[in-house]
């Protein structure tokens, strides 16, 4: 089985779980953070919505510079759950389309590099980037967002099994 086909089921499951989490973002708490060193809730949610676009960045390019010229790229801040979900849905659909077409030798095993101001931070095969830098990274931040929801008394969705708020079994 080609790598992209093996990943599609996981991709669909993780995107559905991320969608469930983003749907619960309280719009009146976008500026809330649990600690001064923590990201604000809205920024963390936006980061998750933007991360789904990294599938296209990985499959369409051979490198991404996150600080070209020494300045980190900053996207305009989204101000509503609807805007977050629209960005997320567009990125997920396009990423899935690209992943479904990505062949092993032509795409998935090609090296990809993350750069900062032109300097490589890491280089991995695109398949490894999709698994670690995109999906595992997304799962990490989604878990953070789950804690943010809990601390704001927002029901946490059941993702891999029941949560304290949902018993789906």
Would you mind describing this structure in some detail?
The protein has 169 residues and is mainly α. It has a single domain (3-151), classed as Up-down Bundle (Four Helix Bundle (Hemerythrin (Met), subunit A)), CATH 1.20.120.450. It has six helices and three strands, in the order αααβααββα. The chain has a three-stranded mixed sheet. Helix 1 (3-22) packs antiparallel against helix 4 (81-101), helix 2 (41-51) runs antiparallel to helix 6 and helix 3 (54-60) packs antiparallel against helix 6 (126-151). The longest helix has 26 residues, at 126-151.
What's this, in brief?
By secondary structure, this protein is mostly helical. Helix content is 53%, strand content 9%.
The CATH homologous superfamily is named dinb family like domain
The low-confidence runs, each spanning 5 or more residues with pLDDT under 50, are none
CATH class: Mainly Alpha
- The sequence of SSEs as H and E is HHHEHHEEH
Specify the CATH architecture: Up-down Bundle
Indicate the overall shape.
globular
Order the strands across the largest sheet as they lie in space: 1-2-3
Number of helices: 6
Radius of gyration: 17 Å
Give keywords:
169 residues, mainly alpha, Four Helix Bundle (Hemerythrin (Met), subunit A)
Write the layout of secondary structure elements.
Layout (H helix, E strand, L loop, with lengths): L2 H20 L18 H11 L2 H7 L2 E3 L15 H21 L2 H5 L2 E6 L2 E7 H26 L18
Parallel strand pairs: 1-2
Antiparallel strand pairs: 2-3
Helix pairs in contact: 1-4, 1-6, 2-4, 2-6, 3-4, 3-6
